[in-house]
Design a protein that fits this description.
Layout: H1 12-27, H2 33-36, H3 42-56, H4 61-70, H5 75-105, H6 114-135, H7 143-164, H8 176-196, H9 200-210, H10 215-237, H11 243-265, H12 269-288
Helix pairs in contact: 3-4, 3-5, 3-10, 3-11, 4-5, 4-7, 5-10, 5-11, 6-8, 6-10, 7-12, 8-9, 9-10
């Protein structure tokens, strides 16, 4: 088994190998390097999106979709390209979080339900995702409007929970209500993810925080569920992916996905939720305006 500890931004061997692989990816692409220069700034976008996604449990589409709308991508291109970038960033984040669990949290009481949450939500999410794809169910509104309202409502909901919910002892056990809730979240979140490229991770992490589960466990579970969901979806939308963007944003997202766990372990739950909520409110408001 490959030691995931190798994937550290402070490891010069990892950085050298990463740069070599990235350069190989660029040189082997069907596009001339001169044509790709204009897309170099998407490396920063990929890194930023992955840091946000893997430190909050939200899909990177929360960062990517608003920008893609401004760049006049079609709805299909925006969603497909967001999925492709997330395949890089969410995978790196998922591997980092899983390594964190296996090396530090396996015997911790607050992480007892970690694997069960991931398993149930992931299976339900895949069912919800493929229900949309198989039956060609259309989003109830355009991508632009749906995404903006989704962001606004989720952001407001988080703010309300921060200031209205009283401090509570962290929960470790899953009850019948939790099993039913995460199953529904998986089904509904998977469908929303098929329409917006985000959804299941955001809904899962918010539910787990509302139920007072450990913040790091909630984020880790949401990241891993999101990673598996986007990989399940990419085969259905690959023909619409804007690969010039992915060539830069994807590898950048790998770096962001690795760094995100460090950010979470240094932020309090309240600060993390406020950071998440503010971004959602801003992106939703700008989209609607």
């Amino acid at each position: 088994m490959v030691k995931l500890a190798f994937m550290r931004l402070s490891n010069p061997t990892f950085i050298a190998l990463f740069l070599v692989l990235w350069l190989t990816l660029l040189l082997s692409s069907p596009y001339a390097l001169i044509e790709l220069i204009d897309y170099a700034l998407f490396s920063f976008l990929g890194t930023l999106g992955a840091i946000f996604a893997n430190s909050t449990g939200a899909g990177g589409g929360v960062v990517f979709i608003p920008l893609f709308n401004k760049l006049s991508f079609t709805e299909q291109q925006a969603i497909a390209t967001s999925f492709a970038i997330q395949c890089f960033g969410m995978t790196a984040g998922a591997m980092t979080w899983w390594h964190h669990y296996k090396t530090e949290k396996t015997d911790l009481r607050l992480w007892q339900g970690f694997k069960r949450i991931i398993s149930i939500t992931t299976i339900a999410s895949i069912i919800g995702l493929y229900s949309v794809f198989s039956f060609k169910l259309n989003s109830p509104a355009s991508l632009h409007i749906s995404f903006s309202w989704f962001s606004l409502l989720l952001g407001l909901f988080i703010i309300i929970t921060i200031y209205l919910l009283q401090p509570h002892r962290e929960r470790s056990q899953l009850h019948v209500l939790d099993y039913l809730a995460i199953t529904f979240i998986g089904l509904f979140g998977g469908a929303v993810t098929a329409w917006l490229s985000v959804g299941v991770g955001e809904l899962l992490v918010i539910y787990l925080l509302l139920r007072h589960f450990d913040i790091s466990m909630a984020v880790a579970a949401a990241v891993i569920v999101s990673a598996i969901t986007v990989w399940t979806a990419i085969g259905q939308v690959s023909s619409e992916v804007y690969w010039q963007v992915v060539l830069f944003a994807g590898p950048g997202a790998v770096l962001g996905g690795i760094f995100a766990k460090t950010l979470v372990t240094h932020l309090s739950a309240t600060k993390l939720k406020l950071f998440f909520a503010c971004w959602l409110l801003i992106s939703g408001a700008v989209g609607l305006i």
